[in-house]
Amino acid sequence: MGDKVYFHITNLEQDFDVPHGFAVLGQNTSELLVMPGQTKTSVWEPKKIGVWPFYCTDFCSALHQEMQGYIRVSPAGSNTPIKWSLGDEIE
Ligand SMILES: [Cu+2]
Questions:
Q1: CA of residue 66 to ligand 1 center, whole Å
Q2: Is residue 79 part of a domain?
Q3: Which of 9, 20, 36, 79 could join 13 via S-S bond, C-beta 3.0 to 4.6 A?
Q4: Global pTM?
């Protein structure tokens, strides 16, 4: 593939003690720690087409478990299905 994805992540928390983290499955770097008011960039090079989970890596609040999502990697105009499971290979 060779294309890179740049995630620019801003922590909008108002309290000084609520850091957030960020990581994407398959990322080769360690996770990001983003303190309140900070913006950091995480670079990720998807190894293949598909759907990849991303998540907060730092316990932030009671809603920490909700801080996750998925990103679909696909060629423009493709119909790569929006689905993911633990059975997918990780390279
Ligand atoms: Cu969190």
A1: 8
A2: no
A3: 36
A4: 0.80
33 CA → ligand 1 middle, Å: 10
The tokens for 79 are 């119909």
For residue 30, the domain's CATH number is 2.60.40.420
In a domain, 60, yes or no: yes
CA 64 to ligand 1 center in whole angstroms = 4
Tally of domains in the chain: 1
User: Residue-wise pLDDT tens for the chain (91 aa)?
Assistant: 678 899 999 999 999 999 999 999 878 777 799 999 999 999 999 988 889 999 999 999 899 999 999 999 988 888 888 887 777 555 5
Handedness of CA 67, 86, 81, 50 (dihedral sign): positive
Residue 83, domain member (yes or no): no
Amino acid identity at 66: E
- Ligand 1 mean position, distance from CA 51 (Å): 21
Confirm whether 9 is domain-assigned. yes
- Return contacts of 74-79, CB within 8 angstroms, 24+ apart: 74/49, 75/49, 78/49
